[in-house]
Backbone:
């Protein structure tokens, strides 16, 4: 009797799942899901990018997969990406709810806020405040170059040897955003800085890694002491870090005289003076962590990719250095305004961003209403996965889609051009807020270091491995960086 009851329950669960996962009418095609797991067993959870590419080759630029019982539509290629995120920007501007990232951030911040007035207000505030604190101006250049001087000192001490850059650029990027958010920088040896970087990088790997996928797919396991719980524990420490900074600012804050982003936010809270306002201390803490994470992990991993390829492509490095020397001449330091006179160096930096593919699946979207895409019907609240990798490597869009070659960004006259398919920051209204800061950081850091140093693959470095470690961001595998002072210094 008991056996029959168990079989009946299992059969009922199976039928319920099959009913729940039946594709809506005219929904994008895709592989058949299996009960409970959906399609995750058909993906390499360590890095699903190649599997997503194979599915696109079979089902087209727009196809569907199931994460557990939840349907998701994967966008591949420039045409699908533009039609969804640009042409139908509002319809595809939502953010998914109920995933690990939502639970960790408690539905606050700005990156994961769903489309609506609260998101619009906070995004507008961030863009305005970053601009007022020097984004695109000389004051931001000075902040970046001041931090680069610490990098230069580190490499001078390492000249003639090799060094481990694994967290070096994370410290630089984190300090730059800390000066904007909190008016504070940390020494590279500071335990707080090292702890924050470790937790940011760990969480980036957990959220989009196997355990993050298991959390999102199998809700019944969420309360168990499995490795994904580390994400929540880390975030509590990060919340305390940001909360302590806010508390210190509240003690010394002078209304109308902002020193940094936190002061500007406190001014905004006072100006609104409404208990129901979305501008509040709790929101501020998650807002700060959004910006800290976005500005630290993406830029640093792009820099790690840059030096991996510059070491293993010495001809590219040498050509950049020649151009930098010619343009800067006797100037004491580089300026962001030097970019137009450095077409090859600009091309190299953009090519690094293309091959780095730092945020391969962007940040997931959802549809805000029932809509259509490339002939398919997409219901409201459908999970949307923009596969940016598919655009950055699309064969019809690049001269050398599978090679590291700055010529992808140069025309026949050697002038810098930026193809439409270049979208490492995504596109549309939800593209990365920190694009302007990242572009300035990459240019000033790379030009300053290439002017002073030569970077060489160490003799004991083994065979270069370009295979990245997957997560929210792609990270190059650890390597050693050989450093030499240049002969003209």
Residues:
């Amino acid at each position: 009797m008991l056996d029959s009851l168990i079989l009946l329950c299992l059969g009922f669960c199976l039928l319920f799942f099959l009913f729940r996962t039946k594709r809506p009418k005219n929904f994008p095609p895709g592989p058949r899901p299996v009960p409970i797991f959906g399609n995750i067993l058909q993906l390499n959870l360590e890095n699903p990018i190649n599997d997503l590419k194979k599915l696109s080759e079979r089902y087209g630029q727009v196809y569907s997969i199931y994460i557990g019982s939840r349907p998701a539509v994967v966008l591949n290629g420039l045409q699908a990406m533009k039609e969804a995120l640009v042409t139908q920007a509002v319809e595809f501007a939502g953010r998914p709810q109920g995933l690990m990232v939502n639970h960790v951030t408690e539905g606050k911040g700005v990156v994961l806020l769903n489309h609506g007035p609260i998101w619009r207000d906070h995004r507008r505030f961030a863009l305005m405040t970053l601009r007022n604190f020097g984004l695109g101006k000389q004051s931001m250049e000075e902040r970046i170059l001041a931090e680069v001087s610490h990098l230069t000192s580190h490499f001078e001490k390492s000249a003639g040897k090799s060094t481990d850059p694994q967290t070096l650029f994370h410290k630089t990027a984190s300090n730059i955003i800390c000066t904007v958010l909190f008016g504070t920088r940390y020494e590279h040896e500071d335990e707080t800085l090292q702890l924050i970087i470790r937790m940011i990088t760990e969480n980036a790997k957990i959220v989009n890694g196997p355990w993050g996928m298991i959390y999102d797919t199998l809700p019944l396991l969420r309360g168990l002491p499995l490795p994904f719980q580390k994400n929540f524990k880390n975030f509590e420490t990060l919340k305390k870090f940001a909360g302590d900074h806010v508390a210190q600012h509240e003690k010394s804050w002078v209304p109308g005289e902002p020193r940094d982003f936190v002061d500007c936010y406190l001014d905004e809270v006072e100006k609104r003076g409404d208990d129901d306002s979305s501008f509040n201390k709790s929101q501020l803490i998650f807002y700060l962590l959004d910006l800290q994470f976005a500005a630290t992990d993406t830029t640093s991993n792009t820099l790690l990719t840059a030096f991996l390829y510059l070491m293993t492509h010495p001809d590219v490095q040498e050509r950049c250095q020649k151009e930098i020397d010619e343009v800067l001449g006797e100037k004491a330091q580089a300026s962001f305004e030097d970019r137009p006179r450095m077409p090859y160096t600009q091309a190299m930096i953009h090519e690094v961003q293309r091959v780095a593919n730092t945020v391969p699946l962007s940040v997931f979207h959802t549809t805000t209403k029932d809509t259509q895409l490339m002939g398919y019907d997409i219901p409201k609240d459908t999970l949307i996965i923009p596969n940016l990798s598919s655009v950055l490597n699309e064969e019809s869009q690049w001269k050398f889609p599978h090679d590291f070659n700055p010529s992808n960004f140069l025309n026949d006259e050697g002038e810098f051009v930026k193809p439409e398919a270049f979208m490492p920051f995504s596109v549309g209204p939800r593209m990365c807020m920190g694009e302007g800061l990242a572009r300035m950081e990459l240019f000033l850091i790379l030009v300053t270091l290439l002017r002073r140093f030569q970077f060489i693959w160490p003799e004991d470095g083994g065979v270069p491995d370009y295979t990245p470690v997957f997560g929210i961001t792609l990270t190059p595998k650890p390597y050693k960086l050989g450093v030499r002072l240049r002969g003209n210094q």
Observations:
- The chain has a mean pLDDT of 91.
- The first strand starts at residue 62 and ends at 67.
- Residues 91-357+393-485 form a domain with the Cytochrome p450 fold (CATH 1.10.630.10).
- The chain has one domain: 91-357+393-485.
